[in-house]
Structure prediction request, 115 residues.
Amino acid sequence: IFGGQNGSANFNDMYDFDMETMTWTFVQTTGILPSPRWGHSAVVQGMDTMIVFGGAGDQFFNDVFLYNLFGSSWKFAHGPGEAPAGRWGHSCIMHGESAALYIFGGCSKHAASED
Prediction:
């Protein structure tokens, strides 16, 4: 579990929930940590990478972060092309065969919902 909010504070912490023991553990991470946020999306690519996109906090985010599940480390992902508008409350899927991340909808500062 990454980030979220409690009504008065935004978080960028990481917790692991062990499905066998039904216990929570705080995860100490390294690297370039995403800003505190809520309403973001997170998907898993392969066996070792979680991808986090967007969300809201002190602004609407349109950034992409990669988290290595085995190394407990974050890195900022960037590339050519224009990123979508910052948003929260969107849906996101990872298409494994094409290694493409698809983002749909959400709310931004420009519109109540993006399409």
Remarks:
- The mean pLDDT is 93.
- The chain is about 0% helix and 50% strand.
- Residues 3 and 12 are 4 Å apart (CA to CA).
- The chain has one domain: 2-104.
